[in-house]
Specification:
573 residues, Nucleotidyltransferase, domain 5, alpha/beta, five-stranded mixed beta sheet
Length: 573
Amino acid sequence: MHIGITLGHDSSIAVCDSTGKVIWAASEERFSRLKGHLGAPFLAFSAMKSELGLSQEDLNSSYFWVGGEFDSPDESWILFLLLNHECQVNLDIFNLGMPPGLLTKILTSDKFKGFSAKSAISKAFGANVNRIVFINHHDAHAASAFWPSEQEDSLVVTLDGSGDGESGTVSIMNRTGKKLVTSRIPEYLSLGHLYSEVTKRYGFKESRHEGKITGLAGSFPREQIRGLFDDLLKCKHGTLRLKSRYLYDPRLRDRLEIWKRPNHRKAFHLAVARAESATQNFAELAAEAQVFLEKIVVGLVGHYKKTTGLENISLAGGVFSNVSLNARIREMLSPEQLYVFPNMGDGGLSVGAIWEGMRLSRIPINPRVVDDIYLGDNLVESQSPGLKRRPIEPKTLADLVVDEKIVGLVTGRMEFGPRALCHRSIIANPSKQSINAVLNARLRRTEFMPFAPVVRDVDFEKVFEGSLPDSRLPSNFSFMTETIKVRSYWADKIPGVIHVDATARPQLLRRIDNQLLYDALGILASKFNLPVAINTSFNTHEEPIIRTEDEAILELTRGKIDVLISNESILEL
């Protein structure tokens, strides 16, 4: 058995069998209730052991693959911090910095003296110290992008803020386990950090609210883009470079270290300030950043697609949580297959570390490592006294949607990743634009992008301008990782899920995913000419998606939803 761990933000844990097939995976935030949990997945690990019935003997015989090379002397203090139970709180170092004196306190602590990375992991998780292996951050991302894609060979691109001193990689991978890394992109050229600088400029939080900038960008006409970031970075022959205006700016270096590269965060901050000074329109600034990101990434991926001759593209890393970027890659580069790992951010490192570790160890990997992304624990039902359960038919659910009720829907195993895929979702009627304001007010959200539609597989091509890939292969549209054009016929019929550029971010639903909702959508389509419903994650602003039935009931009592359906029953208090 193989156990993978993500330490840091979006901490998670995953378990694979001896062939690499995922049998359990979940993020710590769902258990701790701390958004983007920074630390170690202690609670998720306990839940995993309980649900799978693992003994200490099972743990002793398992490999532990850790996403990130924390075993170097320079990184040991970070691991010490992340494994410290006292620090398992929402330590937002991305936006608030390290608390004053904390680093000194760690380095001078008696507990830190003689600290050993593997011994610490072993003590924290009951692992055999001889079976703990640290995997490079971006190599783990690349593995998460390739192995679930089911492609025989692929161009694999990873991009994020940073990890192990890098912000991205470009690789060639195939099913035999061969891998050729053609480019490693250093942290100081981080496109993720650039986008985060724009995010912070609006008063939003880095590594958490970048999606709001993507949504806001869509409200500004692309034809009016002026290229306000074009003097910052360039991509030439597949290599990213800072342009001379920033490369040689003495203000971006320490005056005693002028031979060193400039401080890229200061350079990006300056670039955002300059762009902002050229416009009074916040939406334009967001759009300028979005279009610049698309230009650079499409240029990077396009160069390697051409030079390698590969027609399949696999993507992972936080930058590819940008659904508009992913759609632009498909539009501009026309790959035969385009796959984005559903848990593309650091939460996905736990499974990626396993697959990369298996590849390095020459352990054969199952051709189908995931069948779906419902990989977390089963729904924990409430034991609240007086709670009543009334069976519900698909027609009743369809009627609730038509009557514009806001419905909480919980069932089965929890989704692994940032998207709710109708196991922990809120369902609503998309036929009025006003539903966006209603839902945002209920959930205390500040969103600029309309909500996402859920649609049956048989109705997908009826609603959207595009054909699905071979049904045997995973589709980005099953996981809400890409936008697509909505057919003009639906423009005034489902405005609640259509972006200003006439696209949407759909979830393609199979009957096996949620039989009740699938059949209700069939009724909505045939009886009401409404083949889609709104699907948004079951959580209020700044809270993780719910995990248990008790958490769903609490949201019902708070008035966040009108009706709660759990495991095909309406719950009544």
